[in-house]
Fold Heme exporter protein B.
Amino acid sequence: MTALFLRDLKLSVRAGGGALIGILFFLTVVAVIPFGVGPDLKLLSRIGPAIVWIGALLSALLGLDRLFQAERDDGSLDLLVMQETPLVLTVLTKCAAHWTATGLPLVIASPLLGLFMNMNEMAIGATALTLLVGSPAITFIGAVGAAVAVALPRGGLLVSILVLPLTIPVLIFGVSATYAVVEGPQPFLPPFLILIALTLFFAVLGPAAAALALRNTTD
């Protein structure tokens, strides 16, 4: 599993510059908002956490279609399905490598992009923390869509269509937890704990559903 994790991590970084493309897209989405909203700094700081979360969500969707595509192209997907190691554990490892290469850079870049939105220190910290906790759920959900669309010649758009509605609860509770810190008076802990619960739930359900879809694809 360690070898698979390191292999997928290298492929995610090298194949099309996945991490760099995600950060650049994240930067583009967040940077253009002030031009559309105008010079109202209070408005920017108020909508800043939601914009950063939406930008991170859209950026995370970019590389999901390549989660199993390399194995499909070189024929090693059949070997992954037939190996002795449980396929669920293999999918979980691939998801962890994918998030490390594409999701973690978005979390690291979010404080810098929060400055573009005139967010204060508490808002920037809360946004980064909620992204750190909630963004893995997007990868686990995306693994299911990537497994369903892996056999299709142009499955990238289909993956986004399948995954985006399922990520709405993650977005809602991530933004709610951030606003609880910034504005109050609602407590921060309930939406934050629900966000953690969503990540843990999809960490179990996502790899299992993706493994089932991969088995059906290779049959």
